[in-house]
Amino acid sequence: MIKFDGVHKWYGKLHVLNDISLDVASGEVVVICGPSGSGKSTLIRCINRLEKFQKGELYVDDMPLHDYSTNLTKLRAEIGFVFQQFHLYPHMTALQNVTLAPMHVRKLSRKDAEAVGRQKLVRVGLEDKADAYPTQLSGGQQQRVAIARGLAMSPKIMLFDEPTSALDPEMIGEVLDVMVKLAKEGMTMCVVTHEMGFARQVADRVIFMDDGQLIETGPPVQFFDNPQTKRAAQFISKILTH
Amino acid sequence: MMTFYFQRLVEIFPFFLKGLWMTVVVAASGLIFGTICGFILGILRSGKNKLVTRMIGVYVAVIRGTPFVVQIFIVFFIFPEWGIQLEALPAAILALSILGTAFICEIVAGGVKAVSTGQWEAAASSGLTRIQQLRLVIIPQAMQTILPPLVGQYVLLIKDSSVVSVIGVVELTRVGWVTVVRIPEGLMVFSLVGFLYFVISYPLIRLSNYLEERMAVQETKL
Known about the structure:
Distance between the termini of chain A: 34 Å
Number of strands of chain A: 10
Radius of gyration of chain B: 21 Å
Number of helices of chain B: 9
CATH architecture of chain B: Orthogonal Bundle
Helix content of chain B: over 70%
Structural class of chain A: alpha/beta
Oligomer: heterodimer
Number of helices of chain A: 9
Number of domains of chain B: 1
Strand content of chain B: under 5%
Distance between the termini of chain B: 62 Å
Number of strands of chain B: 0
Order of helices and strands of chain B: HHHHHHHHH
Helix content of chain A: 25-40%
Largest sheet of chain A: 6 strands, mixed
CATH class of chain B: Mainly Alpha
Shape of chain B: globular
CATH topology of chain B: MetI-like fold
Shape of chain A: globular
Strand content of chain A: 15-25%
């Protein structure tokens, strides 16, 4: 589904992605972790080309992203992206947020789009908030609407960039619950997060990044209990004591 | 003598209304063209293409840095030398549109830039095209920032339209000039001229203030 092959990216002299090779199969749930500045966000932002890269090959859903003639809107319609800061459209209600892309990208009628939208809001447990504006919602609720917005396009892949990092602790659970449900339903997911509980529960693989490199990859039990590299071990001890 | 002049002024009041109408025609045309072109240039100016933003920047700097009366003279007297021959009225409308575009462009660019990049990214991620991102997500949010100064700018442009009297467009200010020759009571004549400008400007000033207050209220809600 996603195939990185020797991907490099530089910001000026800074080598933010260094020779990334990675395969994500359909239905797989991959958790990416690592210290801040390790390039993990950049990595998943490459998957829907919010970031360009200079070298290497990347195929997503068989579309070559290293080829700049690839139709980006077509690609992005198939990939849901959930941001750390939610980025809901503040001038629209929850339902309007969710139905915007189905109406204008998928060209559904308003009625059909709203049917899909309400169904997705039910799925994240917010059917009663359909007419609320983002400012009237808590952080956890906003993030769940953002997930529903992604799901409304029936994407093949869902990407999560630190989806719980901007939330108060008591709201993290409600967002993770939605994500766990999604993972169990077989969605292909790449999740940048430090939520180890989530990783242990549903990840097929954990990927550890540092300095733009892919340092270690393995099943969550092995990664957390018996890390193979010193840097991963240091990192895990830090987030455990945190 | 005063009352005599006042009576004369009342008699020729329809002439003032004609002038007012011409002011409205010049200003409204300039505002409409200026708004359309200002939005297009403003959106381009907020974009990433360096060459385009610089070129628009030069245009804006030149227009903002030179007196309007000079710009009108160039359009009316110099453009014909380059083969663009315009009557006084179209020349006035063109000059006011060029002026309005420059100011409105800056207001629009500021409003678009004030929308966070996260909004662009969210809209792009869901598969919207660049035009859809602008139309559905960015511009509606930018309008909050754009609207109050835009309406304020309209007031300035309406008043600036008085300058087109120098090339002989018989609008409100020109009517004042012509009248004062026959009724040598300058204060009376130009008070009337000023009052008529005020009549069209004041509702817009109130509107601008209202929009600004409404925006402040919305901001406290966020």
